[in-house]
Design a protein that fits this description.
Mean pLDDT: 88
Helix content: 10-25%
Distance between the termini: 6 Å
Number of helices: 6
Order of helices and strands: HHEEEEEEEEHEEEHEEHEEEEH
Strand content: 25-35%
Structural class: alpha+beta
Number of domains: 2
Length: 303
């Protein structure tokens, strides 16, 4: 049994002084500045019919971005959750979401989203607490999903200016198909944004399939044996340690008839940007590491 400290030491030696610094992949879809402009808020009229017009796109690495237009006030904060199935007590189950989506100039965009599925492929015990191995992050299949938009009009959610623009706490004047009464059995109920359209998620590209194949691979390394976890978990483990952080993150390019070069770009402290490389064969499903960083990021010890 080797512990995480020994693994870190091994990685440091293998990468000739690699200092591992932690941060998850950059989201590539940062929300807008939440500070609304006064003129934009003054233009908002609470008696109009409010709407959200949403769509979904897919990035090259396979993640989904939910985006669209709305006439909700500038700077308003939304929660956006993709729902699939039910929780034990019957409530919808969220499998991905962004809790800080900000309306900016009539538009909104979530951070890129993976689908969370239960981890049934390797042990969930012994990993550093900074690494999520309870669930695995996988690409959404190409089909329709329910996407829940939610927002509340109180000081915990919105700025004072937004509260004023919507008619005060509870936003009681608001109307439209995206607006729901918290207590529909009374005439003076507070209002919320509560809207769940069905959005079609586009197909996964070959590059996305190759990236997904690498991230999910549980590799075997000569003289060390089979990794305790998949490549995704090992990369997350290193990215959560002092000294590394993700740069461009995952990418894939075709380099053969059915093969793709899959890379993970990261910042190695003062040494700057570096890259871990693998090759994925979509015909056979096989994955192999290509460079030293790819090998290092392919293996974790038994805990």
């Amino acid at each position: 049994m080797r512990n995480w400290m020994k693994l870190t030491l091994m990685g440091t030696v293998a990468l000739a002084g690699l200092v591992v610094a932690g941060c998850h992949e950059s989201n590539g879809g940062a929300s807008a500045d939440p500070s609304p402009s006064g003129s934009a808020l003054k233009a908002f009229s609470p008696d109009r019919d409010l709407f959200i017009d949403a769509s979904a796109s897919r990035l090259v690495d396979g993640r989904i971005v939910v985006f669209g237009t709305t006439n909700l006030p500038e700077g308003l904060k939304l929660w956006v959750n993709v729902e699939e199935g039910k929780l034990p007590l019957g409530a919808p189950k969220s499998v991905a979401g962004d809790e800080n989506v900000i309306v900016h100039q009539g538009k909104f965009t979530t951070q890129p989203l993976w689908m969370a599925v239960p981890n049934t492929r390797f042990t969930k015990t012994g990993w550093p607490s900074t690494v999520n191995v309870k669930d695995r992050e996988v690409p959404f299949p190409a089909r329709a999903f329910k996407v829940h938009f939610e927002s509340y009009f109180n000081g915990a959610w919105q700025s004072k200016d937004i509260i004023a623009a919507v008619g005060g706490e509870g936003a009681k004047p608001l109307k439209g198909k995206i607006i729901k009464a918290e207590n529909p059995d009374v005439i003076d109920s507070s209002k919320t944004v509560d809207y769940t359209p069905s959005l079609t998620f586009p197909p996964l590209s070959p590059e996305g399939k190759a990236t997904s194949l690498v991230r999910a691979a549980i590799m075997t390394v000569p003289d060390q044996g089979r990794s305790t976890g998949d490549v995704q978990a090992v990369v997350d483990m290193f990215m959560a340690s002092p000294g590394l952080k993700a740069a461009k993150g995952w990418d894939a390019k075709k380099d053969g008839l059915t093969t793709y070069s899959v890379s993970f770009d990261f910042i190695n402290g003062s040494q700057g940007e570096q890259q871990a490389l693998w090759q994925a064969d979509l015909a056979t499903g096989k994955v192999k590491y290509v460079n030293e960083n790819g090998k290092l990021f392919s293996w974790a010890p038994s805990y």
